[in-house]
Specification:
434 Repressor (Amino-terminal Domain); Umud Fragment, subunit A; 6 helices; about 25% strand; globular
Amino acid sequence: MNRLAEQIKRAREQAKLSEKALAKKCGISESYLRDIESGKKVVKEDIAENILKKLGKTMDFISMAEEPPKEEIKGSPIRKKEAVKELQNYDLNPTGAWQKALGNLVKTYPIQRMDTKKAVGEKSLFLMGNKVEGYHPDKLFFIEVTDNTLQGFRIKKGDVVTVLDTQEIENGAFYLINGEKGRMIRKLRRDGSGKVSLFQGLEGESPVVKKKEQVKIIGKCIKAEFSL
């Protein structure tokens, strides 16, 4: 069962609603709701948001991927201790040959704070066909979000964002830009008059509108990841 399915089931049980009653409120079949809660079907984000809204809840997770099952370690406790001891005595440091081989398969990037550009960690990704995440490896960089100004879009402080080095504006996409108070992430929308609207995702928000040349784009944000 994925985390979103667990969240929906838990919210329904807290609301003391039967599957039939909740399905009726949401305009979906009882069998479909049952499949969602059991993890048999992957629910679309808009449907999940509607279900949780009926229960007075909001989505806690961006990712809807299923959690990998936990593997049981077979064997007696004595054998487990022996295995741990054996690993402790084993030299796990890679040799120079291994480091060179892995260097052709893995690209390691620094993770920078969004505000100060200070390195706060690293992220290693596999090269597939000389590309990382489908892009040229030198076109990507990673930042750590340092405020909650975009929590309306479920992007929060501490999230790690993948940024693509590009100046092209795609309507409805998120971009890392240089603002008056430093680097920030905003959702951009361009109109036919050459102006660009900047959104934060606030309820009842009036976007900031600027001329295209006034928006200093650093790159396009293509993925946001969070840690539990």
